[in-house]
Design a protein that fits this description.
The chain is mostly beta strands. Helix content is about 10%, strand content about 30%. The chain starts with 8 loop residues before the first strand and ends in a 35-residue tail after the last strand.
């Protein structure tokens, strides 16, 4: 008797179409990222995850040989509860691009998730002596809970100098300074003479 081993989908990483067939890059529960595989949609029974994934993508497709890829949207704005859920998953992988929009409502903030989306600014690194400062700005927007995140220079920045901002913007050096921080605190390697020793 043949038996089929079933694997649980943790989340969907990416999407493409080949010759009219949908394929999803799958992160499997209990398996490292190196074990991610491309699977045709008829191999999957996780319609809710597929639905959530496509909410994060525009369906403006462009052709590349025989494959079609979805172009990515700006960062996704999510509610606090969803940010907590995603934060635990990202933290277990040692990476996160969550940014709370707590300018207006610090108790129930919205959160920007730039893990898969957004512009080059989500690659700006941390420094305990940064040359950039984060400000919330409002452009053609009357909703105080949805500011745009802007980076402004704190001083004159030299050519070829790396751009950085302080991830611990509150100045709080406790382990709870950032609710999305790793359970095991992350050492700071910024190299600044005033380095605090920890990212958050």
């Amino acid at each position: 008797k043949n038996s089929t081993r079933l694997f649980e989908v943790e989340y969907i990483v990416d999407f493409k179409m080949i010759n009219g067939q949908r394929y999803y890059l799958i992160k499997w529960v209990g398996w490292p990222n190196e074990a991610n595989t491309w699977e045709p949609d008829d191999n999957l029974s996780c319609s809710h995850l597929i639905h959530d994934f496509h909410e994060d993508y525009t369906m403006q497709l462009y052709k590349n040989k025989h494959e079609y890829y979805a172009s990515k949207q700006p960062p996704k704005v999510i509610k606090n509860e969803e940010a907590e859920r995603r934060g635990k998953r990202y933290d277990s992988e040692g990476m996160t691009y969550l940014f709370d929009l707590d300018y207006y409502d610090s108790e129930n903030p919205l959160t920007v998730d730039a893990t898969r989306f957004g512009n080059i600014s989500h690659f700006v690194n941390h420094s305990c002596s940064p040359n950039l400062q984060v400000y919330n700005v409002f452009i053609n927007n009357v909703d105080p809970s949805l500011p745009r995140i802007a980076l402004f220079a704190l001083r004159t920045i030299s050519a070829n100098e790396e751009l950085t901002f302080d991830y611990q913007m509150t100045g709080d050096n406790s382990p709870d300074a950032d609710k999305h921080s790793l359970i095991k605190r992350t050492r700071c390697l910024c190299g600044s003479s005033s380095c605090r020793g920890w990212l958050v």
